[in-house]
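Record DUF2334 domain-containing protein, 524 aa.
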Amino acid sequence: MRKLFLVFLSFLAGTVLFSAKAEAADTDRVLLVYDSLNFADSGEEKVDSLQRLLTSLGVRVDTVQDEDYLKGTLREDIYTGVISFVNWSEKGIRSEEFIQDRAVFTGKKLHIGMDVAADEEESFSGDFKQLSHRQYSLHHQKNQYQQQLDYQDQSLILATDVGTIFGTLHAQEIEEKSYPFGVIQEEAAFLPMYDTEGAVFLQAAELIQQWLGENESYKPMLTFKGFTPLNDMKVADAFIDKINQMALYYALSSTSTQQNNDLLTYQVFTGILANAQKSGLFFLEVPAANGADLNDGHALRGIMEEQISLLVSGSLYPIGISAPGYWNQDTQYRADALSYGKTIILEANPSTDNIHYRAQDNRSAVYETAFYSLPLKSLENIEWARNSNYTEYAFPFPVSLAIDFPVDESAEAVALAQIENSVFDFGQNYDANYHFQVQTQTQNIEYIDGRLVLNGQTVSQFVADEQPELPKEGFKGLFANFFRRVNSGLIWFIGIVLVVLVFLFIQGNRNYKSKFFNQGGDKK
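=>
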């Protein structure tokens, strides 16, 4: 019996481990290698942007500076692709170990920026040309938008008509010349530059999506970010009322607190959240991190659990977690905070002085839906093609178009003007591809077909249209898959034990009767 139990435990452990490995293998992993953070030109923002973009596209990304690269890291059995990002043209990628490994790597390859190496050139048909002192306008390949770019001291373009072209650069010269912007040729791709905003960012995102083999399109989600219990509640209440009257589909990203929740100010704060929840979705922002909190063990997990429980007890239902991008590059932040969200919004990192890692590993996780937070104002300099008042452009990644939550009446006027002047129709329902869910060990919160659902039961509905019946479903917590497998295994184990016991009982009964009759025969 003891051996049977040990065999069962071994089988169960193997099943769980195999399942975890299979789930990890289903997700592509990309190695991002950059030459420098280039703080003088805000290059650290571009690295953060690339990390968040790749996560929003459902790709695990490992990030390393070229001088820290270890020989043998880039292997086909680990990575499906590699990105070589020249973030500072005066430096470039110089690691011989990386260049040698990249040369023999047979997976997908993307180069961004200047300084294309010889092994990379071999992957392309066409001529690389270095141009100086140019002013370009960038035109979308489907004529959905265009933008005048900043003056470029140096630029590298690939002159080719082979492969898939993303956008066209029109150079303002005596005789106007045009060049491809981004190019994909089989497994290799090239981008002459990368930025965190405007047409350059959108074209880069479109190319990276197709390079990865993805083809989904997404409607943007309007998000008001940065609401806190310290806001001017009179301004906040008036703003939410105006937004609700505009019949918009939006999200509110807000911090919360687990302290002083019996005070009137907290009740006013949660009342505004409840008002927003009538028409919008609520994302819980992670607590502020600072250097003094670095040695608090896993207190963050307790804070997240307590905040979510307090909100739920007040009929407030966060359906996602919002955090700066660097939290997804830290193993402890992921485990103690981001793991509660099947849905997250990845915000741009704060200033370098306000970045506080706990266990930095530069290896991002993936989520059911990871929104890339993009300030709505970062697209204002684009000239859009419109159908009536709105563009028909669909984003190649889940995107949260963000507006800072107004702190006073003048900021409120700016926010309302941004919405009114936007080329995006925020009156449309949330994209059907988006998944909204937060899980703790005792709560499973989801947004399904216009309904907020807690542990399988509808708790709130704010979409007037008739909705299909929700399927009956049980609670699914953080350990749901594990416990489901354990339960199934235990059922089989108990069944086997019962069969064995019945067999032993029958066999024992026969032996007993046989012994009794034999003794009776001897007495005669």
